[in-house]
Specification:
The chain has a single domain (69-251), classed as TULIP domain (Bactericidal permeability-increasing protein, domain 1), CATH 3.15.10.30. The chain is built from 6 helices and 7 strands. The protein has helices at residues 2-15, 18-34, 38-59, 202-221, 223-242, 248-252; strands spanning 72-82, 86-98, 104-111, 116-139, 143-168, 175-186, 189-194. Strands 1, 2, 3, 4, 5, 6 and 7 form a 7-stranded antiparallel beta sheet that branches. It is elongated. The two termini are 28 Å apart.
């Protein structure tokens, strides 16, 4: 019954004239919170934010100049992996990644006392395809490894968790991320399909099997260091999406008075 009431409030707010929507929403959410339904209110706001994020990923955000991110177009990228068995220097051109918009939220806990947000999110399947790759490397620093052609990579079960500390934007309208702590991730499955490595044919299968094994081992072994390097970049990327969303007033209603 409580959920029905909340949905009804949202429906009425959506039908109201645009100029009155925010004022109506704030007033009704405050009244709803006062009745002791705090958890329902928090869950509703979090669900709305994740729905908005998914919409931006799949459809873009023209007003902010954000393009569609699933598929994510990558004109070129350079990957270097120095491992004991195999050393890789891989360049991908005209690549795209798909599957980010299918993310699944396993946990989302908002702590209003310290203004933090614990999240646990997975992406069931990520596919990265490139029209052209250029590979240089070696086996055991002795046997040369090279190739050019098309490439497809499948990442299965990518999952990450983190604690996001939140802050108010300078214009006092948006929820931004101040810092990220306890960032960790896991990649349980990785499939490589490099076409044309060391002449192609049966050699492709051998090279792909080695690449899969080495990349999984390397990423999972050094994921702590990788997460530390990625931390700052994540804050900048996420804040570029969050800045401009009129969200702080919803969080403000939940903060201790």
């Amino acid at each position: 019954m409580k959920l029905v009431i909340l949905l009804a409030l949202c429906a009425v707010a959506a039908a109201a004239p645009k100029a009155n929507r925010d004022a109506f929403a704030i007033e009704e959410f405050e009244r709803f919170q006062a009745t002791g339904n705090r958890n329902i209110l928090i869950n509703a706001i979090i669900t709305t934010l994740f729905q908005r994020l998914r919409s931006i990923i799949l459809e873009g955000w023209e007003e902010k100049g954000v393009p569609v991110l699933d598929p994510l177009v990558i004109e070129s990228t350079h990957i270097t992996i120095p491992a004991e068995i195999i050393n890789l220097d891989l360049q991908l051109k005209n690549a795209q990644a798909t599957g980010v918009g299918d993310f699944v939220v396993h946990k989302s806990i908002l702590n209003v006392n310290e203004i933090s947000f614990d999240v646990d999110i997975s992406v069931p399947t990520l596919e990265i395809s490139a029209e052209e790759y250029d590979l240089l490397g070696d086996f055991f620093a002795a046997i040369p490894l090279y190739g050019k052609g098309g490439a497809v990579f499948h990442i299965e079960g990518f999952r990450f968790s983190a604690k996001l500390f939140l802050k108010q934007s300078e214009d006092e309208k948006s929820i931004l991320i101040e810092r990220i702590e306890n960032l960790t991730f896991v990649i349980p499955g990785f499939k490589s399909n490099l076409d044309g490595a060391v002449g192609g044919g049966d050699i492709d299968n051998i090279v792909n099997a080695l690449v899969e094994e080495v990349i999984i081992d390397y990423v999972n072994r050094f994921r702590g260091a990788i997460a530390k390097v990625a931390n700052g970049a994540l804050v900048r990327i996420l804040n570029s999406f969050l800045d401009g969303l009129n969200t702080w007033h919803y969080l403000a209603m939940l903060l201790p008075k």
